[in-house]
Design brief:
The structure holds 3 protein chains of 3 kinds. Chain A folds into 2 domains: about 130 residues, Up-down Bundle (Glutathione S-transferase Yfyf (Class Pi), Chain A, domain 2), CATH 1.20.1050; about 200 residues, 3-Layer(aba) Sandwich (Rossmann fold), CATH 3.40.50.11810. In chain A, the strands form 3 sheets. Chain A has a 4-stranded parallel sheet, sandwiched between helices. In chain A, strands 6-5-7-9 form a 4-stranded parallel sheet, with helices on both faces. By secondary structure, chain A is α/β, with parallel strands linked by helices. Chain A is globular, with a radius of gyration of 20 Å. By secondary structure, chain B is of the alpha/beta class. Chain B is built from 7 helices and 19 strands. In chain B, the strands form 7 sheets. A 5-stranded parallel sheet of chain B has the order 10-17-11-12-13. The two termini of chain B are about 25 Å apart. Chain C is globular and about 55 Å long. The model of chain C has no long low-confidence stretch (mean pLDDT about 95). The chains are: A alpha/beta, B alpha/beta, C mainly alpha. Chains in contact: A-B, A-C, B-C. Chains B and C meet through helix 5 and strand 16 of B and strand 1 and helix 3 of C. Strand 16 of chain B pairs parallel with strand 1 of chain C.
Chain lengths: ~350, ~325, ~110
């Protein structure tokens, strides 16, 4: 694809000294990605990034499900800014797309309606006695990896290619809606042709797949997956994407949003079990990676150290294709060799049984 | 051109200052004109012939910097002494790349109506790989009535252009399915509504009321589009071989330079030159001695622009008489 | 092994998919009665419809759906028409709407 317009949407990304805001979903479902991010930032790129145990959820999920009122959300976000200010930082690196969208939106709201900022400051002060400076620079952590993609490539041990054939891997990139659909100018490449993940894939030797439903939402939708009865149209959106990308035979997907990575991965299990349909060339599902995991593989990190055993769809076929050496027996061993438990067997976990699945590829 | 002809007929000495290498403006790129399918070349040749016959002086390749109290300032600092000026600088074509979601210049088989006119003029309309399209979709209002690209006005002539080109596609590709996605169909001119009905009924063009939200590539090099069929209230998607963006008229980029250089000339919020008033003074500006004709003030058809040329000339004559 | 029930079903897309719909019948209807294609969706027919004011019958919408290849239910819907002919008097495009009703019933009885 002739992605020529992405340079129209470049944004300023601070070079060093970040305050790290973690993601609720990521800490629970693939905590290794955040650890990997810090490892890359510190060990590979030599950056200063502060991981603060005091910061909390941004309330994004609560806010988007109409549980948390906007004033509360603003006060909580103001508190994160206060913690950043107290720690002596002014650049914020945000791990979650929903948080990133929410922070961006709040800063924009405060800019357009200064009285809302005054109210947030007042609420925060009354509740906690804290004061804050607004961040000088707000970036999503995928922005930071994009910003440093060349430096990462310089230290790479492998490319995103098939170790046997040398062919580039086919990569589906999926951008979280709140990354640039709210404010196209806040995302690299804008909202229609975002380049933040595609730029990494290009730089690291993969081939970006442009398929009809590339821009489509994964279906996460907050209240739509939280309420069981509504999950049908949440999962239907992921399926729509899977159906659309399958003919391109993607080797893996990469997402920059916690919810998308989680749902595009886990719904593959649900679709297989509900409708007997699986995707991916071998019918074992299409692995869904975070950009940190993708970067980590390029840098030669151990997949289990990055927490890739937390995926619903097994990543082993992909690791084999990339020629990544790993210890199969170490998959479910955590710190100090402690067994962390294995999931129930399923077709997307390389299980072979009598059940017949229709493979769409 | 018409303004110069009318002025010459009144015994005055008009000079046409033209930026490009020939007079006629965008008409030179058009193939056939709605609603009569008259070849554009025919109109152009007639007008150019009359100009030549009248001996009107034409300065080609000459850029206007601005209009000052001493006349027209040209590039290289020269000044053209003029008792009155008619601004007939037309419009710019909306840059379809700004509607990123349609993938113009990203996907191979996305064209604009201007591209189609040029292809028609070359006598060869085909897909990127040279094959004939089996399914064609036209998207109305690309760069018109769209706050997202700062073009809130209706460009007026695009609806009928879309109808005309759809019918031309029908002539070229009798077996093709043709769809026009519109927000409203505005058939304001004589014979337009009739042509629209003919397009539906005889040419079998499918008009679907709904704005295309995005275009994306398919694995076989075609284009998938999404819209709502608002008349039945359901989303719709389809794959087409050729996507034609019916691009609107944008205020000419030079209008701002004109307003900056010439005291009294103001621009409407749309960026077009604001007429002195919308009714009796529609070809006058706020600057005495500076008049307009054609799409400098708003989207207009060729017929309307020619009529305004004659009208502006008449206003010039009136102005010069009063000035004496 | 049977499919697992997680307490919800995967929703079925409700959009009109013109890649999937078979437009042959729509084309044949149009060829037989070209004026059928000339509708401008003014809704005059439905506004005055004897049946449509008492039932869910919407002549404008049903014939639009038929033109998009959505034939399911069209025959049943057209059976609600009372053939009074008022819609034809109203139509600004001069479409023989009553004729369209009969044509759809004749051609799309299988759907």
């Amino acid at each position: 694809m002739k992605r020529t317009s992405w340079r129209d949407y470049e944004k300023e990304i601070a070079d060093d000294h970040y305050y790290y805001a973690r993601s609720c979903i990521r800490q629970n479902f693939f905590p290794g990605s955040e650890t990997t991010f810090l490892r890359i930032m510190r060990d590979v790129l030599g950056k200063d990034i502060y991981d603060d145990p005091r910061h909390t959820s941004c309330t994004g999920i609560g806010y988007h499900t109409d549980i948390v009122p906007l004033d509360t959300t603003m006060a909580v976000v103001a508190r994160q800014f206060a913690l950043m200010t107290e720690a002596g930082y002014e650049n914020m690196a945000i791990s979650c797309i929903t948080s990133f969208g929410l922070y961006t939106e709040i800063l924009e709201t405060w800019h357009e309606f200064p009285e809302t900022e005054a109210r947030a400051r007042e609420n925060l002060f009354k509740a906690t006695g804290r004061e804050f400076k607004k961040p000088a620079n707000l970036a999503h952590t995928s922005d930071l990896v994009f910003h440093n993609r060349e430096a990462i490539a310089a230290q790479a041990v492998r490319k995103l290619e098939n170790a046997v054939t040398g062919e580039p891997l086919n990569v589906v990139e999926h951008i979280g809606c709140h990354y640039a659909k709210i404010f196209p100018k806040s995302g690299i490449g804008g909202s229609e042709f975002p380049y933040v993940l595609a730029g990494m894939v290009d730089e690291w030797g993969g081939r970006v797949v442009d398929y009809p439903e590339r821009r489509h939402c994964c279906g996460f939708g907050f209240r739509n997956y939280l309420v069981q009865a509504n999950r049908g149209f949440s999962i239907a959106n992921s399926r729509k994407k899977l159906e659309s990308m399958a003919p391109y035979r993607p080797d893996f997907m990469v997402a920059n949003c916690p919810g998308c990575a989680m749902f595009l991965d886990k719904w593959q299990y649900a679709i297989a079990e509900m409708e007997n349909v699986t995707y991916g060339a071998d019918g074992r599902g299409i692995p869904v990676l975070t950009y940190e995991e993708m970067a980590g593989l390029v840098l030669g990190y151990d997949p289990w150290e990055m927490g890739m055993q937390m995926h619903q769809v097994d990543v082993e076929p992909l690791l084999a294709r990339m020629g990544v050496a790993y210890d199969p027996s170490g998959k479910f061993l955590g710190r100090a060799g402690k067994y962390i438990g294995a999931p129930e067997t399923a077709v997307v976990n390389s299980f072979t049984g009598d059940r017949i699945y229709r493979i769409k590829a | 051109m018409q303004a110069a002809l009318s002025l010459a007929a009144d015994g005055l000495k008009p000079v046409i200052v033209e930026r490009s290498g020939a007079v006629g403006g965008k008409l030179r790129d058009w193939h056939r004109l709605f609603p009569t399918m008259t070849p554009a070349q025919e109109v152009l040749e007639e007008m150019a012939g009359r100009l030549e016959h009248a001996g009107v002086e034409v300065m080609l390749h000459t850029e206007v910097e601005g209009i000052g109290s001493k006349g027209v300032t040209l590039a290289e600092g020269k000044t053209l002494d003029a008792a009155a000026v008619i601004v007939a600088s037309g419009f710019d074509i909306f840059d379809a790349r700004l509607k990123e979601e349609y993938g113009y210049h990203v996907y191979d088989n996305v064209y604009t109506t201007v591209d189609i006119e040029r292809m028609l003029n070359k006598g060869h309309v085909a897909l990127h790989d040279g094959s004939a399209p089996r399914r064609i979709a036209f998207v109305h209002c690309v760069g018109s009535r769209d706050e997202k690209v700062n073009q809130r006005h209706c460009s007026k002539v695009c609806c009928i252009t879309g109808v005309k080109q759809a019918m031309e596609m029908r002539e070229l590709f009798p077996e093709a399915e043709i769809y026009n996605f519109y927000m409203d169909i505005r058939m304001f001119g004589p014979g337009y509504e009739e042509l629209y009905q003919q397009a539906q009924q005889e040419s079998g063009i499918n008009f679907i009321r709904g704005r295309v939200s995005e275009a994306s590539p398919t694995i076989d090099g075609r284009i998938q589009i999404k819209a709502e069929d608002t008349l039945v209230g359901r989303p719709m998607k389809m794959t087409v071989d050729m996507l034609v963006l019916i691009v609107g008229m944008k205020a000419a980029g030079g209008n701002e330079r004109l307003a900056a250089s010439c005291k009294g000339v103001t621009l409407a919020p749309s960026g077009f030159v604001a007429p002195k008033d919308m009714f009796a003074g529609s070809v006058e500006t706020g600057a005495p001695g500076v008049f307009t004709a054609g799409a400098a003030t708003a989207p207009k058809t060729i017929g309307e622009s020619i009529a305004e040329g004659a009208m502006a000339a008449e206003k010039v004559v009136e102005y010069l008489k009063k000035a004496k | 092994m049977n499919a697992v029930n997680f307490g919800y079903m995967i929703s079925v897309a409700r959009g009109i998919d013109l890649d999937r719909n078979d437009l042959t019948s729509a084309r044949e209807l149009g060829d037989e009665m070209p004026e059928f294609r000339a509708c401008i969706a003014c809704g005059g027919c439905t506004a005055t419809c004897t049946a449509g004011n008492l039932t869910s019958f919407n002549f404008r919408m049903v014939q639009t759906l038929v033109r998009r290849g959505e034939y399911a239910g069209a025959y049943r819907e057209m059976n609600k028409c009372m053939l009074c002919g008022k819609c034809r008097l109203v139509c600004p495009r001069g479409i023989n709407t009553r004729g369209v009703v009969m044509l759809i019933k004749r051609k799309l009885g299988d759907y």
